[in-house]
Amino acid sequence: RRTARRRATPPPRPCRTSPPRFVARRAKAQCAFVARHLPAGAALESVVEVGGGWGALSSEAMARGAPFPAAVSCFELDGEAVDFMASRGVDARKGTLEASPAADFPPGSVDLILSSMMLEHLPDPRAAVAAWRGRLKVGGHLFVEIPLENPVPTWWGSDPARPYWVGHITFFAKGHLEAALASLGFAVVAA
Questions:
Q1: How far apart are CA 42 and CA 16, in angstroms?
Q2: What is the mean pLDDT of residues 108-133?
Q3: Is the predicted pLDDT of residue 185 greater than 60, yes or no?
Q4: Is the peptide bond before 125 cis (omega within 30 degrees of 0)?
Q5: Phi and psi (nearest 5°) for 153?
């Protein structure tokens, strides 16, 4: 016979005041990549991040200075993440760019859209990118980083009713994103 003793509830973990280090390092590398591939002398006035999570990419862009503006707007569905980003000075908005009022970001008004590790969470990433394209200025830029996960490793499971634990529902192989972007009229500058 065994007896069980109720364990004490562990104390709550303290809230983060900054993103995990690997996320911050990735944001630095992403901003450097974007800056290297912009035309010489580019001055960005309007930058929007979609699916900002921790807001590390938006925060890094704002801290970096030229060619990035002092303010970046960021869309995110998770309310706690929006609050976290707002506490760090990001213009964080709950929702999506494609569903935001046109008055906030009129068609043809955005210089750069940033999307880091987000498209794989969407059922129709091409439709989202097509909607974002309408908000970009002529000659505007889109930065997208995605994981290459096709074929999906078997240890992730294969039951479509129970997707990979981080919510990836669209999987990309090399060339998939480039083909989708080209089909929407984007010229891929770097991959």
A1: 34
A2: 94
A3: yes
A4: no
A5: -55, 140
Q: Which helix (H) or strand (E) holds 89?
A: none
Cα 153 to Cα 155: distance, rounded to the nearest angstrom: 5
- Give the global pTM: 0.85
Which residues on adjacent β-strands are paired with residue 113? 48, 142
Half-sphere exposure of 65 (CA within 13 A, CB side): 0
Residues 6+ positions from 44 with CB-CB distance below 8 Å: 38, 67, 68, 69, 111, 112
Interval 126-175: pLDDT, tens: 999 999 999 999 999 999 999 877 666 665 666 666 655 567 778 888 88
Burial class (CB in 10 A: 0-12, 13-18, 19+), 28: middle
The answer on pLDDT for 177 being more than 60 is: yes
Q: How far is CA 55 from CA 37, 62, 82, 88, 147, in A?
A: 22, 11, 8, 8, 18
C-alpha closest to that of 96 among 145, 72, 69, 129? 129
Gap between the Cα atoms of 50 and 133, Å rounded: 13
